[in-house]
Amino acid sequence: MMMFCHIIFSSLITICLSLILTILFRSLFLRANIIGIDQFKIDKPKIPTCVGISYGITSLLAIIVLYLLGCVDVTIVYSYSLMMIICIFVGLIDDFYDPPGIFKPIAMLFAGIPLIIFKCYTPYLRTILYGGYNLPILYPFMILLAFSVTSNTVNMLDVINGSAVIGVFMVLLSGLLASIITKSSLGVIISIILLSSLIGILLFNIYPAKIFLGNVGSLCMGASIAFLAVTSKIELPLVVAMFPFIHNSFYFLAKVKGFIEHKKLNVNITFLDNHGFIVDAEDKRAPLTLLRLLVSSSPRKENELLSDMLLLFTVSLIFSVITSYLVTIRV
Amino acid sequence: MTMRGVWFVVCILVIEWILFMLLNILIFNFSRVILIENRLIDQLIKLIINTIIGAGWLYSWMKLGEKFYFKVKSKT
Questions:
Q1: For A59-88, what is each residue's pLDDT tens digit?
Q2: Interface subset of A 189-208, CB within 8 angstroms of B
Protein backbone atom coordinates (compact mmCIF):
# COMPACT_ATOMS: atom_id res chain seq x y z
CA MET A 1 0.00 0.00 0.00
CA MET A 2 2.86 2.34 0.95
CA MET A 3 4.63 1.55 -2.32
CA PHE A 4 1.40 2.24 -4.25
CA CYS A 5 1.09 5.68 -2.60
CA HIS A 6 4.74 6.43 -3.42
CA ILE A 7 4.23 5.56 -7.07
CA ILE A 8 1.08 7.72 -7.32
CA PHE A 9 2.86 10.57 -5.53
CA SER A 10 5.94 10.44 -7.79
CA SER A 11 3.71 10.07 -10.85
CA LEU A 12 1.84 13.29 -9.97
CA ILE A 13 5.12 15.14 -9.36
CA THR A 14 6.41 13.86 -12.70
CA ILE A 15 3.31 15.06 -14.61
CA CYS A 16 3.67 18.56 -13.08
CA LEU A 17 7.41 18.58 -13.80
CA SER A 18 6.80 17.45 -17.36
CA LEU A 19 4.33 20.28 -18.02
CA ILE A 20 6.55 22.92 -16.38
CA LEU A 21 9.73 21.86 -18.20
CA THR A 22 7.95 21.60 -21.57
CA ILE A 23 6.52 25.13 -21.24
CA LEU A 24 9.90 26.41 -20.00
CA PHE A 25 11.93 24.90 -22.85
CA ARG A 26 9.29 26.00 -25.39
CA SER A 27 9.58 29.66 -24.43
CA LEU A 28 13.36 29.40 -24.03
CA PHE A 29 13.89 27.90 -27.51
CA LEU A 30 11.37 30.31 -29.07
CA ARG A 31 13.39 33.22 -27.64
CA ALA A 32 16.69 31.66 -28.75
CA ASN A 33 15.23 31.18 -32.27
CA ILE A 34 15.72 27.39 -32.16
CA ILE A 35 12.83 26.69 -34.52
CA GLY A 36 11.70 24.29 -37.21
CA ILE A 37 9.14 24.69 -40.00
CA ASP A 38 5.97 22.62 -39.97
CA GLN A 39 6.04 21.25 -43.52
CA PHE A 40 2.55 19.75 -43.49
CA LYS A 41 0.72 23.05 -42.90
CA ILE A 42 -0.26 25.43 -45.71
CA ASP A 43 1.01 28.55 -43.88
CA LYS A 44 4.31 26.77 -42.87
CA PRO A 45 4.41 27.99 -39.22
CA LYS A 46 7.65 28.24 -37.28
CA ILE A 47 7.63 25.96 -34.22
CA PRO A 48 10.23 25.75 -31.40
CA THR A 49 12.19 22.53 -31.82
CA CYS A 50 14.37 20.28 -29.57
CA VAL A 51 11.76 20.67 -26.77
CA GLY A 52 11.82 16.86 -26.45
CA ILE A 53 14.84 17.40 -24.15
CA SER A 54 12.26 18.07 -21.41
CA TYR A 55 11.22 14.37 -21.58
CA GLY A 56 14.80 13.25 -20.94
CA ILE A 57 15.27 15.62 -17.99
CA THR A 58 11.81 14.92 -16.49
CA SER A 59 12.21 11.14 -16.60
CA LEU A 60 15.72 11.42 -15.15
CA LEU A 61 14.48 13.53 -12.21
CA ALA A 62 11.50 11.18 -11.76
CA ILE A 63 13.77 8.15 -11.41
CA ILE A 64 15.77 10.03 -8.75
CA VAL A 65 12.50 10.80 -6.89
CA LEU A 66 11.61 7.09 -7.06
CA TYR A 67 14.99 6.21 -5.55
CA LEU A 68 14.53 8.74 -2.73
CA LEU A 69 11.16 7.14 -1.97
CA GLY A 70 12.81 3.71 -1.89
CA CYS A 71 10.99 2.33 -4.95
CA VAL A 72 14.03 1.53 -7.11
CA ASP A 73 17.60 0.39 -6.62
CA VAL A 74 20.56 2.81 -6.85
CA THR A 75 21.95 0.91 -9.88
CA ILE A 76 18.76 1.77 -11.80
CA VAL A 77 19.29 5.47 -11.01
CA TYR A 78 22.95 5.38 -12.10
CA SER A 79 22.29 3.47 -15.31
CA TYR A 80 19.21 5.50 -16.30
CA SER A 81 20.94 8.82 -15.56
CA LEU A 82 24.05 7.95 -17.57
CA MET A 83 21.94 6.54 -20.40
CA MET A 84 19.83 9.72 -20.59
CA ILE A 85 22.91 11.98 -20.49
CA ILE A 86 24.37 10.06 -23.45
CA CYS A 87 21.04 10.31 -25.35
CA ILE A 88 20.74 14.06 -24.73
CA PHE A 89 24.36 14.60 -25.78
CA VAL A 90 23.98 12.56 -29.01
CA GLY A 91 20.62 14.18 -29.79
CA LEU A 92 21.91 17.71 -29.35
CA ILE A 93 24.96 17.01 -31.55
CA ASP A 94 22.62 15.64 -34.23
CA ASP A 95 20.26 18.63 -33.96
CA PHE A 96 22.89 21.36 -34.02
CA TYR A 97 25.85 19.98 -36.03
CA ASP A 98 24.04 17.75 -38.58
CA PRO A 99 26.58 14.87 -38.69
CA PRO A 100 26.39 12.05 -41.32
CA GLY A 101 23.48 9.56 -41.17
CA ILE A 102 25.61 6.77 -39.68
CA PHE A 103 26.35 8.90 -36.56
CA LYS A 104 23.07 8.21 -34.70
CA PRO A 105 23.02 4.38 -35.02
CA ILE A 106 26.66 4.15 -33.93
CA ALA A 107 26.50 6.74 -31.15
CA MET A 108 23.31 5.30 -29.68
CA LEU A 109 25.03 1.93 -29.13
CA PHE A 110 26.85 3.65 -26.25
CA ALA A 111 23.56 4.42 -24.48
CA GLY A 112 23.29 0.74 -23.52
CA ILE A 113 26.72 0.60 -21.85
CA PRO A 114 25.57 1.95 -18.42
CA LEU A 115 23.08 -0.96 -18.13
CA ILE A 116 25.87 -3.45 -18.77
CA ILE A 117 28.32 -1.74 -16.37
CA PHE A 118 25.77 -1.66 -13.52
CA LYS A 119 24.45 -5.14 -14.41
CA CYS A 120 20.80 -4.04 -14.60
CA TYR A 121 19.84 -7.06 -16.70
CA THR A 122 19.30 -10.81 -16.55
CA PRO A 123 20.88 -12.55 -19.56
CA TYR A 124 17.76 -14.56 -20.26
CA LEU A 125 15.52 -13.83 -23.24
CA ARG A 126 11.93 -14.83 -22.45
CA THR A 127 9.95 -16.26 -25.32
CA ILE A 128 6.42 -17.58 -25.76
CA LEU A 129 5.19 -20.97 -24.47
CA TYR A 130 8.58 -22.61 -23.80
CA GLY A 131 10.45 -20.36 -21.36
CA GLY A 132 13.42 -18.69 -22.99
CA TYR A 133 17.06 -18.62 -23.99
CA ASN A 134 19.98 -18.31 -21.62
CA LEU A 135 22.45 -15.98 -23.36
CA PRO A 136 25.13 -14.90 -20.84
CA ILE A 137 27.69 -13.92 -23.48
CA LEU A 138 25.50 -12.52 -26.24
CA TYR A 139 22.88 -10.69 -24.19
CA PRO A 140 25.07 -7.61 -23.42
CA PHE A 141 25.69 -7.13 -27.16
CA MET A 142 21.96 -7.45 -27.78
CA ILE A 143 21.39 -4.65 -25.24
CA LEU A 144 23.66 -2.29 -27.21
CA LEU A 145 21.84 -3.17 -30.42
CA ALA A 146 18.43 -2.73 -28.78
CA PHE A 147 19.27 0.83 -27.72
CA SER A 148 20.46 1.80 -31.18
CA VAL A 149 17.48 0.22 -32.94
CA THR A 150 14.68 1.51 -30.68
CA SER A 151 15.98 5.08 -30.47
CA ASN A 152 16.56 5.38 -34.23
CA THR A 153 13.28 3.73 -35.16
CA VAL A 154 11.33 6.22 -33.00
CA ASN A 155 13.37 9.03 -34.57
CA MET A 156 12.39 7.88 -38.06
CA LEU A 157 8.63 7.97 -37.38
CA ASP A 158 8.68 11.58 -36.19
CA VAL A 159 7.13 12.63 -39.52
CA ILE A 160 3.80 14.33 -38.68
CA ASN A 161 2.57 16.20 -35.59
CA GLY A 162 2.42 13.78 -32.65
CA SER A 163 3.23 10.58 -34.58
CA ALA A 164 6.33 9.62 -32.56
CA VAL A 165 4.86 10.68 -29.20
CA ILE A 166 1.57 8.81 -29.74
CA GLY A 167 3.61 5.75 -30.77
CA VAL A 168 5.89 5.92 -27.73
CA PHE A 169 2.88 6.49 -25.43
CA MET A 170 1.16 3.36 -26.76
CA VAL A 171 4.39 1.31 -26.52
CA LEU A 172 4.89 2.42 -22.90
CA LEU A 173 1.25 1.57 -22.18
CA SER A 174 1.90 -1.87 -23.67
CA GLY A 175 4.96 -2.05 -21.39
CA LEU A 176 2.77 -1.28 -18.37
CA LEU A 177 0.23 -3.97 -19.30
CA ALA A 178 2.97 -6.49 -20.12
CA SER A 179 4.65 -5.79 -16.74
CA ILE A 180 1.34 -6.36 -14.93
CA ILE A 181 0.75 -9.62 -16.82
CA THR A 182 4.31 -10.91 -16.30
CA LYS A 183 4.29 -9.70 -12.65
CA SER A 184 7.31 -7.39 -13.03
CA SER A 185 6.96 -4.78 -10.27
CA LEU A 186 9.99 -2.82 -11.54
CA GLY A 187 8.39 -2.73 -15.00
CA VAL A 188 5.14 -1.34 -13.58
CA ILE A 189 6.98 1.41 -11.68
CA ILE A 190 9.20 2.44 -14.61
CA SER A 191 6.32 2.37 -17.14
CA ILE A 192 4.12 4.59 -14.96
CA ILE A 193 6.95 7.08 -14.48
CA LEU A 194 7.87 7.14 -18.18
CA LEU A 195 4.20 7.57 -19.16
CA SER A 196 3.90 10.46 -16.70
CA SER A 197 7.07 12.06 -18.09
CA LEU A 198 5.49 12.00 -21.56
CA ILE A 199 2.31 13.93 -20.67
CA GLY A 200 3.73 17.45 -21.17
CA ILE A 201 5.29 16.58 -24.52
CA LEU A 202 2.14 14.73 -25.62
CA LEU A 203 -0.12 17.71 -24.96
CA PHE A 204 2.11 20.14 -26.83
CA ASN A 205 3.31 17.94 -29.72
CA ILE A 206 -0.04 16.49 -30.74
CA TYR A 207 -1.79 17.99 -33.80
CA PRO A 208 -1.62 21.00 -34.21
CA ALA A 209 1.90 20.94 -32.74
CA LYS A 210 3.12 23.80 -30.57
CA ILE A 211 6.52 22.17 -30.14
CA PHE A 212 8.79 19.78 -32.06
CA LEU A 213 10.72 17.01 -30.32
CA GLY A 214 13.97 17.33 -32.26
CA ASN A 215 16.31 14.37 -32.54
CA VAL A 216 17.11 14.81 -28.86
CA GLY A 217 13.51 14.08 -27.86
CA SER A 218 12.91 11.10 -30.13
CA LEU A 219 16.25 9.49 -29.21
CA CYS A 220 15.55 9.87 -25.46
CA MET A 221 12.08 8.33 -25.90
CA GLY A 222 13.37 5.38 -27.94
CA ALA A 223 16.17 4.68 -25.45
CA SER A 224 13.72 4.73 -22.53
CA ILE A 225 11.66 2.01 -24.27
CA ALA A 226 14.82 -0.15 -24.57
CA PHE A 227 15.61 0.52 -20.89
CA LEU A 228 12.11 -0.60 -19.87
CA ALA A 229 12.30 -3.74 -22.04
CA VAL A 230 15.69 -4.87 -20.70
CA THR A 231 15.24 -4.08 -16.98
CA SER A 232 11.68 -5.46 -16.83
CA LYS A 233 12.26 -8.58 -18.98
CA ILE A 234 9.45 -7.74 -21.41
CA GLU A 235 11.53 -7.68 -24.60
CA LEU A 236 9.20 -9.73 -26.79
CA PRO A 237 5.92 -7.90 -25.94
CA LEU A 238 7.63 -4.55 -26.58
CA VAL A 239 9.01 -5.71 -29.94
CA VAL A 240 5.41 -6.53 -30.92
CA ALA A 241 4.16 -3.16 -29.59
CA MET A 242 6.77 -1.45 -31.78
CA PHE A 243 5.60 -3.10 -35.03
CA PRO A 244 4.47 0.18 -36.70
CA PHE A 245 7.88 1.74 -35.89
CA ILE A 246 9.68 -1.34 -37.27
CA HIS A 247 7.52 -1.28 -40.39
CA ASN A 248 8.41 2.35 -41.13
CA SER A 249 12.16 2.05 -40.51
CA PHE A 250 12.60 -1.26 -42.29
CA TYR A 251 10.97 -0.07 -45.53
CA PHE A 252 13.11 3.06 -45.43
CA LEU A 253 16.38 1.18 -44.83
CA ALA A 254 15.55 -1.57 -47.34
CA LYS A 255 14.91 0.95 -50.12
CA VAL A 256 17.63 3.49 -49.35
CA LYS A 257 20.17 0.75 -48.46
CA GLY A 258 22.02 2.87 -45.95
CA PHE A 259 21.70 5.33 -43.07
CA ILE A 260 20.62 8.53 -44.83
CA GLU A 261 18.63 11.35 -43.22
CA HIS A 262 15.11 12.01 -44.62
CA LYS A 263 16.04 15.58 -45.50
CA LYS A 264 19.13 14.45 -47.45
CA LEU A 265 17.14 11.99 -49.53
CA ASN A 266 16.69 13.58 -52.96
CA VAL A 267 13.23 12.13 -53.57
CA ASN A 268 9.75 13.20 -52.54
CA ILE A 269 7.93 10.55 -50.48
CA THR A 270 4.80 12.61 -49.79
CA PHE A 271 3.82 16.26 -50.29
CA LEU A 272 1.16 18.73 -49.16
CA ASP A 273 -1.37 19.84 -51.79
CA ASN A 274 -3.08 23.26 -51.94
CA HIS A 275 -6.08 22.04 -49.91
CA GLY A 276 -3.99 20.82 -46.96
CA PHE A 277 -4.08 17.12 -47.86
CA ILE A 278 -0.98 14.91 -47.67
CA VAL A 279 -0.51 13.13 -51.00
CA ASP A 280 1.62 10.18 -52.12
CA ALA A 281 4.35 11.53 -54.45
CA GLU A 282 4.32 8.21 -56.37
CA ASP A 283 8.07 8.41 -56.94
CA LYS A 284 9.39 4.89 -57.66
CA ARG A 285 12.73 5.73 -56.04
CA ALA A 286 11.06 6.73 -52.74
CA PRO A 287 10.83 4.24 -49.84
CA LEU A 288 7.43 2.77 -48.97
CA THR A 289 7.22 4.39 -45.53
CA LEU A 290 4.25 4.04 -43.18
CA LEU A 291 3.00 7.53 -44.09
CA ARG A 292 3.16 6.72 -47.81
CA LEU A 293 1.19 3.49 -47.34
CA LEU A 294 -1.46 5.35 -45.33
CA VAL A 295 -2.00 7.91 -48.11
CA SER A 296 -1.67 5.37 -50.93
CA SER A 297 -5.42 4.93 -51.55
CA SER A 298 -6.43 8.59 -51.13
CA PRO A 299 -4.91 11.87 -49.86
CA ARG A 300 -5.50 12.44 -46.14
CA LYS A 301 -5.35 15.35 -43.69
CA GLU A 302 -2.59 15.35 -41.06
CA ASN A 303 -5.01 14.85 -38.14
CA GLU A 304 -6.67 11.93 -39.96
CA LEU A 305 -3.27 10.32 -40.46
CA LEU A 306 -2.55 10.70 -36.75
CA SER A 307 -5.81 8.85 -35.99
CA ASP A 308 -4.76 6.12 -38.45
CA MET A 309 -1.42 5.75 -36.66
CA LEU A 310 -3.22 5.59 -33.30
CA LEU A 311 -5.31 2.73 -34.70
CA LEU A 312 -2.16 0.87 -35.82
CA PHE A 313 -0.54 1.28 -32.40
CA THR A 314 -3.76 0.11 -30.71
CA VAL A 315 -3.73 -3.05 -32.83
CA SER A 316 -0.07 -3.60 -31.87
CA LEU A 317 -0.95 -3.00 -28.19
CA ILE A 318 -3.60 -5.76 -28.36
CA PHE A 319 -1.05 -8.15 -29.95
CA SER A 320 1.49 -7.14 -27.32
CA VAL A 321 -0.94 -8.04 -24.51
CA ILE A 322 -1.64 -11.45 -26.11
CA THR A 323 2.13 -11.99 -26.50
CA SER A 324 2.62 -11.14 -22.79
CA TYR A 325 0.09 -13.82 -21.85
CA LEU A 326 1.83 -16.33 -24.11
CA VAL A 327 5.17 -15.46 -22.44
CA THR A 328 3.74 -16.45 -19.04
CA ILE A 329 2.37 -19.79 -20.30
CA ARG A 330 4.53 -22.94 -20.16
CA VAL A 331 3.71 -26.03 -22.22
CA MET B 1 -15.25 2.53 -52.81
CA THR B 2 -11.55 1.85 -52.22
CA MET B 3 -10.23 0.46 -48.96
CA ARG B 4 -8.34 2.97 -46.78
CA GLY B 5 -4.55 2.54 -46.60
CA VAL B 6 -4.66 2.04 -42.83
CA TRP B 7 -6.68 -1.19 -43.19
CA PHE B 8 -4.03 -2.59 -45.51
CA VAL B 9 -1.39 -1.84 -42.88
CA VAL B 10 -3.59 -3.47 -40.21
CA CYS B 11 -3.78 -6.60 -42.43
CA ILE B 12 0.04 -6.57 -42.77
CA LEU B 13 0.45 -6.23 -38.97
CA VAL B 14 -1.95 -9.14 -38.30
CA ILE B 15 -0.20 -11.45 -40.80
CA GLU B 16 3.29 -10.49 -39.60
CA TRP B 17 2.37 -10.93 -35.93
CA ILE B 18 1.03 -14.46 -36.58
CA LEU B 19 4.21 -15.25 -38.56
CA PHE B 20 6.36 -13.80 -35.76
CA MET B 21 4.69 -15.99 -33.14
CA LEU B 22 4.96 -19.13 -35.28
CA LEU B 23 8.62 -18.44 -36.04
CA ASN B 24 9.33 -17.94 -32.33
CA ILE B 25 7.95 -21.40 -31.59
CA LEU B 26 9.84 -22.89 -34.54
CA ILE B 27 13.17 -21.28 -33.59
CA PHE B 28 12.86 -22.33 -29.95
CA ASN B 29 12.12 -25.96 -30.77
CA PHE B 30 14.88 -26.09 -33.35
CA SER B 31 17.39 -24.59 -30.89
CA ARG B 32 16.31 -27.05 -28.18
CA VAL B 33 16.94 -30.01 -30.46
CA ILE B 34 20.42 -29.07 -31.61
CA LEU B 35 21.79 -27.21 -28.56
CA ILE B 36 22.41 -28.42 -25.05
CA GLU B 37 25.06 -26.31 -23.38
CA ASN B 38 25.39 -22.58 -22.82
CA ARG B 39 28.74 -22.15 -24.55
CA LEU B 40 29.62 -19.27 -26.87
CA ILE B 41 29.38 -21.53 -29.92
CA ASP B 42 25.85 -22.60 -28.95
CA GLN B 43 24.81 -19.00 -28.45
CA LEU B 44 26.35 -18.04 -31.77
CA ILE B 45 24.43 -20.80 -33.54
CA LYS B 46 21.23 -19.54 -31.89
CA LEU B 47 22.07 -16.03 -33.05
CA ILE B 48 22.74 -17.14 -36.63
CA ILE B 49 19.52 -19.16 -36.80
CA ASN B 50 17.57 -16.23 -35.36
CA THR B 51 19.18 -13.79 -37.77
CA ILE B 52 18.43 -15.92 -40.84
CA ILE B 53 14.81 -16.54 -39.85
CA GLY B 54 14.42 -12.90 -38.74
CA ALA B 55 15.71 -11.67 -42.10
CA GLY B 56 13.24 -13.97 -43.87
CA TRP B 57 10.44 -12.58 -41.72
CA LEU B 58 11.37 -8.98 -42.53
CA TYR B 59 11.65 -9.87 -46.23
CA SER B 60 8.11 -11.30 -46.18
CA TRP B 61 6.97 -8.06 -44.49
CA MET B 62 8.57 -5.98 -47.26
CA LYS B 63 7.08 -8.06 -50.08
CA LEU B 64 3.64 -8.00 -48.47
CA GLY B 65 3.74 -4.20 -48.17
CA GLU B 66 4.79 -3.80 -51.80
CA LYS B 67 2.04 -6.17 -52.93
CA PHE B 68 -0.60 -4.25 -50.98
CA TYR B 69 0.72 -0.90 -52.23
CA PHE B 70 0.61 -1.86 -55.91
CA LYS B 71 -2.82 -3.43 -55.45
CA VAL B 72 -4.12 -0.14 -54.02
CA LYS B 73 -2.46 1.86 -56.80
CA SER B 74 -3.94 -0.33 -59.52
CA LYS B 75 -7.45 0.30 -58.11
CA THR B 76 -7.09 4.10 -57.76
A1: 999 999 999 998 899 999 999 999 999 999
A2: none
